[in-house]
Amino acid sequence: PVDQALLELELQPVDLNALVDDVIKSLATTQHPIVRKSSEDLLIQADPKRIWQCIENVVANAVRYSPDDAPITILIRRSRQEGRDIAHVEIVDAGPGITPEVLPHIFERFVSGRKGGLGLGLYLAKRIATLHNGTLECESKPGAGARFTLSLPCF
Asked: The pTM is what?
């Protein structure tokens, strides 16, 4: 299947801020600025290539759907859940949002919110999050953009 290669992870400590900065450098344009806000340095135990791919897939969608000159914001924060530190990466865009019909299925294979989309990017992003004992969730209201939250255990 399409995600077979994802099953092999090379786990190591990853600086989440640095990784997100690399994604931003690869995707930000003058029409689509991307702003990272972080209150602290966070290390996660992850396969850096796979987590980069996960975040890149979500940010690329945000860039694709956001109107020109509307910044995309990436918030990085820590929380404590069930005695563990969790890193959260929230990717917030000002795009058209996701319709209520598509939203419950947005992470399913071959589901896309746009014409011509393959519906694999968010599916793979969710699989990568799950393989890292994390989650990827989405909140959206039509006309009000979308907020994707990747949550991963800290190192």
From this structure: 0.92
